[in-house]
Amino acid sequence: MKNLKCFAGDIDPLKLDRTPFGLNHKLADHPALAIENLAKVISDFPKEKILHSKELNNLSKNFDTEMDSTNHEVNLVEVIENIRTSKSYIAIKNPELHPSFKDLYKDLTEDISNLLQAHGTGTKPLEPKLWVFIASPGAITPFHFDRTSNIIMQIRGSKELAVFPPRVDEIISQRDTEGYVDWSTELPPWREELDLFAHKFNFKKGEAIHIPFVSGHYVKNGTDDISISLSFFFHSDETLRWSNAMKFNNRIRRFGVSPNPVGIKQGLDKIKAKAFPLVHRMMSLMRGLK
Ligand SMILES: [Fe+2]
Are 176 and 226 spatial neighbours (Cβ–Cβ below 8 Å)? Predict the structure, then answer.
């Protein structure tokens, strides 16, 4: 693995999207991620890019509507102060669109490109995007999975991050995984006995964790400080193929078919992924004819 700009440590690219693993990053003191700059990003960004929740697990409220709009910076200080005690979240979507994140985003994209090339699953990340999460001490993110691959970096504070192996039927069934990837079903409720499968990371400033595509995970923030973390979400050629093949499986299930799981036979996944847009169009057309 050649020298990376943002990551360090013993990195085995062959583990990508197979198993969660820890690595180190060099971004903890990057000026774009300083709280003063994050305040500026929040004040510069359109309101739909900022999510704020006073609830433990609810990111659906809009940050701007929670605040007096006359002075974002003063209000952000209040929000950050409240975040120490309110068990809430602020999420900044697509900070890469802000000029202050331009170089950071470029460097991360280059590093992920190198990882994908070493893994043999692409030349560059597909559909790449960043999110910044600012969360209260003790706040919990419930068990769920992301619909892309993810490398999450801890910038400030600490958390326990439990990550589960991907595509294991006992953890999340094939049917539930495919339905959730296709945005058509919710995940089933969390069961305590699943904790046996977890890789638990004590996640600190300067550390990063790879969360594979469709790997379940939950987060318990440390109680000592607020938490700031940065996620780089992306697809490889392989995970985009898996994603479309899973959506294909989900759609054909409605016709009484029990499809083979994705990720076993690459040739079959390729055919399903290619066929998905056609199936999607046909089903949309059929809905229109009803
Ligand atoms: Fe997540």
Answer: no
